[in-house]
From TrEMBL:
One Pfam family matching this protein: Xan_ur_permease
Record key words, sorted: Membrane, Transmembrane, Transmembrane helix, Transport
Domain of life: Bacteria
Family classification: Belongs to the nucleobase:cation symporter-2 (NCS2) (TC 2.A.40) family.
Location of the protein in the cell: Membrane
PANTHER family registered for this protein in UniProt: PURINE PERMEASE C1399.01C-RELATED
TM region positions: 25-48, 54-73, 80-99, 105-130, 137-155, 161-179, 186-210, 230-247, 309-331, 337-359, 394-411
Mode of membrane association: Multi-pass membrane protein
Protein name: Uracil-xanthine permease family protein
């Protein structure tokens, strides 16, 4: 395990340099940066349990524990905060409604175990096989469909308090374009704060649970149910989430490697194992599934401090915050209008992240295989397709993800066998410089 060495004078970061994972600034600055990481993750991490009905304090506890487990398993060489993953919202919401919280937790545990197993394979066999299984058009479709599948949930909350929902949504958008840097990156949290204050002034918040809650106490623990008849169909609903967590973890590792040292990429397998273990532990005791957080990547980019020491501070701070039931009750008091406003933006943004994968990888949508891979999967997810055999039910996310994989791989095999040109021919080649004004230079 890496031992932190003091970076420079411990007070400043020289221009063009960064504080590496095995370095730290003075402990006062390290603690301050760690607390900043807690603030950055807080808005998104508390939203997931609020939206799914899970206890906020429990999720916060296992977020902190998961972060510390991540640092231990990656040998203190990969800076990351593990917050609540939005990819779990759709399957948890559906599973809780149809089979209960215990079955939803069983689904989270199953995802964690599978992710850890994939991490072991990646650690020894490399990550190339994942790129072949889930090329950009498939990866983008699966990420996008998870976000768009949640659209009806956002509308259900929004229509209960349309004015509060509109104010919250407008605030989120305004903060994102009004501020730069850190404040711009926490626009969702700030938008929720504005909506909450307006709802409080309008007398539309019930504080009875807050008044009864103790200031200090243990979070509420719940346990997975693996024996109920509906649990195994619920677990199938969760499996596509694994693909999203792989994409998020791989992207996180590559982002840190780009900004620090390319050798960080060697820890990709360990990152997947660590997130899998953290998700499994959370699911075993009633917490939400975890993932590496882009919000904290933003903090590192802004501060140029990639020290894992700051994340030990952040994990410990989250655990301490989780030991106040009153804080959890405050977050659970967020009214439906605020949730409807923020999720209208948030679920759409999850969808846009999938579309960004297509854009970044220049997916060629003139090819029929790519067209139908994306088109069929998105319509299935948005419409809420379901298949049921007796007590066994497959939800829209698993059906749409399976359709994307099947259409892409089988369609490519047939198109290449028949040489029709309908297959995925790779990224669209760039024609001339990207961006800027076109030139009038003659074509030679």
């Amino acid at each position: 395990m890496a031992v932190w060495k003091l970076h420079g004078d411990g007070r400043t970061v020289e221009p063009g340099k960064v504080v590496g994972p095995d370095e730290r600034l003075g402990w006062g600055l390290t603690v301050a940066i760690g607390v900043q990481h807690v603030i950055a993750m807080f808005g998104a991490t508390f939203l997931v349990p609020v939206l799914t009905g899970f206890p906020v304090s429990t999720t916060l506890l296992f977020s902190g524990i998961g972060t510390i487990l991540f640092l231990i398993i990656t040998r203190n060489k990969l800076p990351s905060y593990l917050g609540s993953s939005f990819a779990f919202i759709a399957p948890v919401t559906a599973a809780t409604a149809t089979a209960g919280t215990g079955s939803a937790l069983a689904g989270i545990v199953a995802v964690g175990v599978l992710l850890a197993a994939i991490g072991f394979v990646v650690q020894f066999a490399g990550i190339g096989w994942i790129d072949r299984l889930m090329p950009p058009v498939v990866a983008g479709a699966i990420v996008a469909l998870i976000g768009f599948n949640l659209a009806p949930v956002a509308w259900t909350n929004f229509q209960q308090q349309p004015l509060i929902g509109t104010i919250t949504l407008v605030a989120v958008i305004l903060f994102s374009v009004l501020f730069r840097g850190f404040l711009g990156r926490i626009s969702i949290f700030l938008g929720v704060a504005v909506g909450y204050v307006v709802a409080a002034i309008a007398g539309q918040i019930d504080y009875s649970a807050v008044e009864k809650a103790d200031w200090i106490g243990w979070p509420t623990f719940q346990f997975p149910d693996f024996v109920s008849p509906g649990t195994w169909s619920v677990i199938a609903m969760f499996l596509p989430v694994v693909l999203v967590l792989i994409a998020e973890n791989v992207g996180h590792v590559r982002g840190v490697a780009t900004m620090t040292d390319s050798s960080v990429n060697r820890h990709t397998g360990r990152a997947l194992i660590a997130d899998g273990v953290a998700t499994t532990v959370a699911g075993l005791f009633g917490g939400s599934g975890t993932t590496t957080y882009g919000e904290n990547i933003g903090v590192m980019a802004a501060t140029r401090v990639y020290s894992t020491a700051a994340y030990w501070v952040a994990g410990a701070a989250a655990i301490l915050l989780s030991l106040s039931p009153k804080i959890g009750a405050v977050f659970n008091s967020v009214p439906p209008g605020v949730l409807g406003g923020v999720t209208t933006a948030l679920y759409g943004l999850i969808g846009i992240i999938g579309i960004k994968i297509w854009v970044d990888n220049r997916v060629d949508f003139s090819r029929p295989v790519n067209q139908y891979t994306a088109a069929v999967a998105l319509v299935m997810a948005i419409a809420g397709f379901q298949v049921q055999w007796g007590d066994f039910q497959l939800g829209a996310i698993v059906i749409a993800a399976a359709a994307a994989l099947l259409i892409y791989h089988l369609g490519n095999a047939i198109a290449r066998w028949r040489k029709t040109g309908a297959d995925d021919g790779g990224p669209i080649p760039a024609v001339g410089p990207l961006g800027g004004d076109p030139t009038d230079a003659p074509v030679r």
